[in-house]
Amino acid sequence: MASINPPESYAALNFKQIRISHVPASSPTPTPVVLITLYRPNKHNAFTDTMASELVLAFDTLSHDPRVRAIVVTGHGHIFCAGADLESPEGLSSNRESEDGSSHRDGGGTVALAIHRCTKPVIGAINGSAVGVGITMTLPMNIRIVSDKAKIGFVFARRGIVMEACSSFFLPRLIGYGKAMHLVTTGAVYNAKNRLVEDLFSEVVPADRVLPMALEIADDIAKNTSLVSTHLMKDLMWRGPSTAEETHLLDSKVLWELFEGEDKKDGVQSFLEKRVPDFKGTMSTTPPKVWPWWKIVDVAAPRDDIKSKL
Q1: Is 162 exposed, middle or buried (0-12, 13-18, 19+ CB in 10 A)?
Q2: In terms of domains, do 71 and 188 share one?
Q3: Which candidate, 39, 109, 180, 267, has a CA 20 to 30 Å from the CA of 171?
Q4: CA–CA separation, 152 vs 285, rounded Å?
């Protein structure tokens, strides 16, 4: 990920389909918690290529901003995201620049990967219904809070397409293959409290509590946790080895490096002194040498070995 210079204030950015604000919005200076709002008021925040591009830029920029310690994502109004905008040519991307499709990149996937690689904890405040890409783009988030009135649908089989936004990777790992297969095979829409989707969410609460709860959690994370610790643990879960023995070896390497780090020292000292910790480490400045431990895949351009198989 290339170096990105963060703006002085995110509220001043001229995005068309998302809004970014510091929390609290009244603060005259940037704050550790940033709120991203999907913003298409007359379209139920339906997803487009423009929204995808803006979200990718936002998450990549926030990853590089040392002032930011947690990110909350919500939808404008009473709907989180109604899925792809089927009335807009931007909704279901139809990039046909290459005859074999090798240059095409699913917009939902670019957003999911931006969240996946984001070095700051991301909390989904799903304030209303989320269908298709509206729910799949939330799967890489650290935490999801949802309205008890929200409708959730993995509706791809009813639209003649397949799972996108890398959801065939994330969904079964979050809720199990049995429930994931049921959801995508029926393509039906379910209430957020239904047992088929309930494991996607940390909390199912009244709509008016979704955003406040997400912001409370974000504030607690921003004040009390190490950015290096939270990101490394996310990567250990999603990008870890395939056996317990390999995981043990990797855990040991990461722990050995962190044990002498400044964040660990202040974490222990703040506990003994009964004060709030002052964690200064970031994945941009103080990652362990063993990170990244997985094979990096370049998704920006097709590789010859992949292109030959398309």
Answers
A1: exposed
A2: yes
A3: 39
A4: 39
- 3-class secondary-structure state, position 209: helix
- The domain total for the chain is 2
**How far is residue 139's CA from residue 175's CA, in Å, rounded to a whole number?**
11
CB atoms within 10 A of CB 141: 22
The b/e string for 34-61 (b: 16+ C-beta within 10 A; e otherwise) is bbbbbbbeebbbbbbbbbbbbbbebbbb
Dist. CA 16–CA 244, nearest whole Å: 46
- Rounded Cα–Cα distance for residues 136 and 87 (Å): 20
pLDDT of residue 98: 59
Instruction: Give yes or no: residues 212 and 93 share one domain.
Output: yes
Q: Are residues 40 and 156 in the same domain?
A: yes
Give start and end residues of each alpha helix (H) in the chain.
49-63, 107-117, 133-136, 167-175, 177-186, 207-224, 227-238, 244-259, 262-273, 304-307
Sites in the chain below the pLDDT cut of 70:
1-3, 89-101, 301-310
Same domain, 21 and 162: yes
Backbone angles phi, psi at 256, to 5 degrees: -60, -40
> Same domain for 170 and 39?
yes
d(CA 51, CA 303): 27
pTM: 0.92
Q: Does any domain span residue 287? A: yes
d(C-alpha 45, C-alpha 38), whole Å: 6
Q: Which domain holds residue 90?
A: 10-223
CATH number, position 233 = 1.10.12.10
